[in-house]
Amino acid sequence: MSINVKYTDLGIIDYKEAWDFQEEIFKKTIAEKLDNQSADKENKVPLEYNLFFCEHPHVYTLGKSGEEQNMLISGIELKAKNASFYKTNRGGDITYHGPGQIVGYPILDIEAFGMGVRNYIENLEQAIINTLKHYGIKGELLDGATGVWIEPNTAGKARKISAIGVRTSRYVSMHG
């Protein structure tokens, strides 16, 4: 079975606008998947798989498992930096996005790829490690933490180069 993923560069886009756009495609994909489950073989519609890349103006997002107290700057400092803040429906904690940072949002039926959620996240991490290697950067995993790190085992030098926060419903993913 061949699966095509449609790539779209959204350019520089406000976080909320990108989130709303993702939600629309996410809900459409879930609805089509559910329709396909009850449809005859000849009436099944191929699902559209999407990978959106973009940049955001300064924004901090809080995942469902995060705590607002983990935010290291105040609302006043957010305003001074012209940064936004959103509580999101993805996993994870606080994440910063800003100009010059590439953000990827895959909307996929991960079940069609033969994956569960944990395996999907591990595959995202490995794809990021492979991409960094292509550019001469050694990305690694940090025990007990999601995402990709630089020098994770060197005291005082561990830096996260890629955060991962995913939402899934019926094995359809969004965020990234």
- Please tell me how large the radius of gyration is: 17 Å
The percent of residues in helical segments reads: 25-40%
Mean pLDDT: 94
Spans of at least 5 consecutive residues with low confidence = none
Provide structural commentary.
It is a single chain. With about 180 residues, the protein is α/β, with parallel strands linked by helices. It has one domain (about 5-175): BirA Bifunctional Protein, domain 2 (2-Layer Sandwich). The chain is about 25% helix and about 25% strand. The chain has 3 helices and 10 strands. It has helices at about 15-40, 75-80, 115-135; strands spanning about 5-10, 50-55, 60, 85, 95, 105, 150, 160, 165-170, 170-175. The strands form 4 sheets. A 3-stranded mixed sheet has the order 1-2-6, with helices on one face. The longest helix is centred in the first third of the chain and has 24 residues, at about 15-40. The two termini are about 25 Å apart. The model has no long low-confidence stretch (mean pLDDT about 95).
Summarize the structure.
The protein has 176 residues and is an alpha/beta fold. Helices cover 27% and strands 27% of the residues. The strands form four sheets. It has a three-stranded mixed β-sheet, with helices on one face. The protein has a three-stranded mixed β-sheet with strand order 4-3-5, with no helix packed on it.
Element layout with pairings:
Elements: E1 5-12, H1 15-38, E2 49-55, E3 59-62, H2 75-80, E4 84-87, E5 94-97, E6 103-107, H3 117-134, E7 148-150, E8 159-162, E9 166-169, E10 172-175
Parallel strand pairs: 1-2, 3-4
Antiparallel strand pairs: 2-6, 3-5, 7-8, 9-10
